[in-house]
Amino acid sequence: MAKYDFKTVAVIGLGYVGLPLAMRAKEKGYSVIGFDTDKRKVGLLKKGQHVFKDTFLQKNLLKYPFKVTDNPKDITGADIHIICVPTPVDSKHHPDLAPVISASETVAAHCKKNVLVVLESTVNPYVSEEVVKPIFEKAGFTVGKDIFISHCPERINPGDPKWNVTNIPRVVGAFDKKGLEMSLQFYRSIVDADIRPMKTIREAEAVKILENSFRNINIAFVNEIARSFDKMDIDVKDVIQGAATKPFAFMAHYPSCGVGGHCIPVDPHYLVERAKESGFNHEFLKLAIKTNNDMPTYTVERLQDALNENRMPMKDTVVGVLGLAYKANIDDLRESPAFEIIELLKKHYCKVETFDPYVKSQSSMKSLEAILKKSQALILATSHKEFTESLTPALLKKHGIKVIVDGKNCLNKDALKKAGITYKGIGR
After folding, report:
1. 119 and 16 in one domain?
2. Active site residue 263
3. What is the pLDDT of residue 1?
4. Catalytic-role residue among 111, 152, 257, 263
């Protein structure tokens, strides 16, 4: 394999994927330029300030400073351009590739010849061929000759103390052998884990979609099991933990009030829509998506059942929603089911208060004590440690809380019930 002389890396998009990647490249000795169109974010990063909570970033942001800009002319001299922009869905759950198109056009207009362009954004198969490649050809480049394009789907788990951009194995695919070799050399220089080459760029695109469709389907399965077990008075959490004692052929997934984050609720839609264009209907995957999308509604139904048991109406009952972020101990709000739960409660004429210790700016109450004092019932939507460690029966009794719906199955069910509090979990 030839040795390529990479000196400067431009990272396009400084979010949950791009920012850690830029810092890691800087740590490994590359000159790094971070580009983002968000002027506020760029301003904060220039001052060395955090733009979101993450343990890896907090440890390394000031240790490995790099150039941050919102001027696309600044990326012109880079040897590698890595596109790390969001790939959301619209209101009808159709893929929105506008950020990828815009970022690709920016790079194509400002990069030199013979550089490597890597798309890390999660996309469905064919996006590199049908969307990205034509943008560079239109700009006058010949892919495989004077521009090299690859896809290395991002793998990041915000808030994870063990797995981050430094040690998660990756896969990469490219349009040609040279592009693949260039990509392998770069990623092997910054990641302390295996980098697996894929035979085609289309296969690399399919890997990430498969990963998150797998998770979506398995979560949907346990969500359906949870609803079934609720009817049969079986604690799904105990059953899953029992099944997990089998050392092979079982992988534990857990039910909850809904799926969130940028990947699991979004990526399966990319596969469904692109497969439809190729003449295939993903019936099973669409059913899984629907099952997961129904969980906020089911969570509110659990609340209604609990209130009925206490002869309390939905209308005008003050319901405290604990947690806005989609997962524990971070401030990431993307696709969080908490917001749908809130809207559903309002449609039932509940009076809704919210508190998230990581997202105080969007919380209606500024402390756990304050929301408990005001609420009559609770829905725990995020398993932040501030909740799991503090929500004791004594505390809830002190504030007169009669009902709690544990949307993450993380509280002590038996202790709460013993204290006379009506507890409803998701499948327990």
Report:
1. yes
2. yes
3. 72
4. 263
